[in-house]
Design a protein that fits this description.
There is one protein chain. The protein is α/β, with parallel strands linked by helices. The protein has a single domain, classed as Glutaredoxin (3-Layer(aba) Sandwich). The chain is built from six helices and seven strands, in the order αβαβαβαβαββαβ. The strands form two sheets. It has a five-stranded mixed β-sheet with strand order 4-3-2-5-6. A two-stranded antiparallel ribbon has the order 1-7. Helix 3 packs parallel to helix 6. The protein is globular and about 75 Å long. The N and C termini lie far apart (about 55 Å).
């Protein structure tokens, strides 16, 4: 009996090890229908002013929560957006937290676009960004679109809308390692 038990334990351990190797950890939270519908209600509203928002260029604001794995996974894609469209659009990271949190994020990720701190969550609340990795596009001082997360399709859509708003040719963005469906990050307080 002990030999059978030992064999079964070894098999169970091997299966657990194989599963740990083959199953990739999930980063982010699936975007729900409610989150999408809530984000759609912001479209067409006047933009609430914040540092870096100008009428001369389209503006992308990316909501960042330090310590959130989804914000960290989204960061390289935001760098790609900046490289593709940074000359023709304002791309701004809105960091939930203090100036110290902002500085720590900047040093860790070398974010190439401006960051602004949102210690009282007023910017996030004004755009109804409920979680990190929400992204808002503002054109002509109006909310053009709010995405309640990010994905490969979302990044392509952002590129298309930025190119259209800036009246420039679309620049392809590598989305091969972006999530297939929209995911959001941790809740913004």
């Amino acid at each position: 009996m002990s030999r059978l038990y030992s064999t079964l334990l070894l098999i169970a351990a091997a299966v657990a090890l194989l599963a740990a190797v083959l199953i990739q950890p999930r980063v982010g939270h699936p975007v729900t229908l409610w989150m999408s519908q809530s984000a759609n209600t912001v479209t067409g509203r006047p933009a609430i002013p914040f540092a870096g928002l100008t009428a001369d260029k389209p503006t992308i604001a990316i909501f960042i929560l330090p310590g959130c794995p989804c914000s960290e996974a989204y960061e390289p894609h935001t760098h790609d957006l900046f490289r593709a469209y940074g000359l023709h659009a304002n791309i701004i990271g809105v960091v939930e937290g203090s100036g110290e949190d902002l500085e720590e994020w900047q040093q860790r990720y070398q974010t190439p676009f401006p960051l602004i701190a949102d210690p009282d969550h007023s910017i996030a609340r004004s755009y109804e960004a409920k979680r990190s990795a929400y992204t808002v596009l503002i054109t002509n001082r109006t909310v053009n679109r709010l995405w309640p997360g990010y994905s490969g399709d979302m990044l392509r859509e952002v590129g298309t809308l930025l190119a259209t708003a800036a009246k420039i040719p679309e620049v392809p963005i590598n989305v091969s390692d972006a999530p297939k469906s929209l995911i959001s990050g941790c809740v913004l307080d």
